[in-house]
């Protein structure tokens, strides 16, 4: 019996993107997988469309929009409760190569490996690289991404040890999840993957990107696109929460000026582009991140107040 893998994707009012993603996932050549959609209280008919077009897909219906981290954790907990040894988390605005799971699993066998990521391309430019993971500066915690916007000419055709993997597409091992925990639910969206990557490294797990596993990403469609007010607000808020959580002591002497200059550059770029609503949203996000309590990672049991249904779809909603 081949190892059970759960494939988890989230949906929030992106019916057509999700349907295209599910069709892609169902074409994967690794057959012992189940697909689970966590729907963040969509109102665009997504749930009915999923049931009609993909009746074998399991579904968690949330009673509200819970954001990325909390909704992803709902799916991961369900996958583990069903005996999954691996959880593949993918954005619903992606399509995947049929051999994606085979290639990811081939790199995940070593016990020191906690997360395996694919090579990710732009959906609109299928040969242009969006992400191959990143290295991280140990002092500032800033990421140094490789491959971004490059045409793929074989320059990243080797397995890479990385410090950061994007939540757009990653394979999580059961042993890693039970040891390190799930996403920190304080991050409604953005930086939850950076936080998980950093926690993985602190626990001694390796993160790798394998170029033989491939997927294509539409980039930021669920947040309204890069530099939308929605995207800027959550990017600002989550960035502050991330650095407040992981920077201690003397490192603030370096990180605080660095982050202040970075924020000022972002505001100037938005202002020069006439994107005043996005600039205001970014400022509000920074403020809310500063005002929020420090808190700790949320790794515990599911919300006892929720009775959201997990079901094998039978064509009705």
Task: Give a short overview.
The chain is of the alpha/beta class and about 325 residues long. The protein is built from nine helices and 13 strands.
What this model shows, in words?
The chain contains nine helices and 13 strands. With 317 residues, the protein is α/β, with parallel strands linked by helices. The strands form two sheets. Strands 1, 2, 3, 4, 5, 6, 7, 10, 11, 12 and 13 form an eleven-stranded mixed β-sheet that branches. The protein has a two-stranded antiparallel sheet with strand order 8-9. Residues 293-317 have low confidence and may be disordered.
What attributes does this structure have?
2 domains, 13 strands, 317 residues, Spore Coat Polysaccharide Biosynthesis Protein SpsA, Chain A, 21% strand, disordered C terminus, eleven-stranded mixed beta sheet, 36% helix, two-stranded antiparallel sheet, single chain, alpha/beta
Series of secondary-structure elements, N-terminal to C-terminal: EHEHEHEEHEEEEEEHHEHHHE
Question: According to CATH, what is the class of the largest domain?
Answer: Alpha Beta
Main sheet overview: 11 strands, mixed
The third-level CATH topology of the largest domain is: Spore Coat Polysaccharide Biosynthesis Protein SpsA, Chain A
Q: How would you classify the helix and strand content by structural class? A: alpha/beta
Instruction: Please provide the count of β strands.
Output: 13
How many domains make up the coordinates? 2
Query: Which percent range fits the helix content?
Result: 25-40%
- Average of pLDDT: 89
Task: Estimate the global geometry from the Cα principal axes.
Answer: globular
Distance between the termini: 32 Å
Evaluate the radius of gyration.
19 Å
Beta-sheet strand percentage?
15-25%
From the 3D coordinates, which CATH architecture of the largest domain would you assign?
A: Alpha-Beta Complex
